Amino acid sequence: MDKFRKPLFIAAGFFALILGAIGVVLPLLPTTPFVILAALFFSKGSHKIHHWLLKQKIFGSMIQSWEADRVIPIRAKLLSTTMMLTMVSYPLLFRPFALWLKVLVVFIVFYALWYVWQHRSEPVDTSIEQSWKKLSGKTTTPDTHQRQASIKQKNSYSADTQSLFG
Asked: Is Cell membrane among the key words of this record (predicted)?
């Protein structure tokens, strides 16, 4: 059974990768989900091809972020949003198409945008840490402040104890 499944996963991976590459210039096919899907298929079909895809300059870090934390980097989100809206806006506004087709295109684009933007841009721990840094303007987290305060308190107790008994 494995003999048949692996080639199917590899073929599906290349098909998804081709759709992702087409999605770079065709706004109805978002690149990011297809590249992520290709990585999933390659991970089940060929570890060698999956590793090759992870080492690619353009998609490698995005796939690693997705596999590790289910994260789509903000840069990929902004790029995909810009490309989709730019490539779709001209034909929708200036070309004569049936209304139902325009509505369908708008629905597909908004669904793709929703899919991309519903995922986090950074891992949860990193997001919390960086948000705290931005809000407080400091380089330590609340937990660090609490630890530092308790250490100072313990040190002051031990200094007081030493002065009383020392």
From this structure: no
Could you tell me the residue range of the domain that residue 136 belongs to? 128-165
Judge whether residue 89 has pLDDT over 60.
yes
**Is residue 9 located within the same domain as residue 63?**
yes
The total number of structural domains that make up the chain: 2
Tokens of 165: 């008994």
Output the six-digit token pair for 24: 């770079």
> Are residues 105 and 28 in contact, defined by beta-carbon separation less than 8 angstroms?
yes
If asked whether residues 137 and 118 sit together in one domain, one would say: no
Asked if residues 49 and 10 have their Cβ atoms less than 8 Å apart, the reply is yes
Q: Tens digits of per-residue pLDDT, 59-74?
A: 888 888 888 888 888 8
126 contacts: CB under 8 Å, gap ≥ 6: none
Do 90 and 27 have their domain in common?
Answer: yes
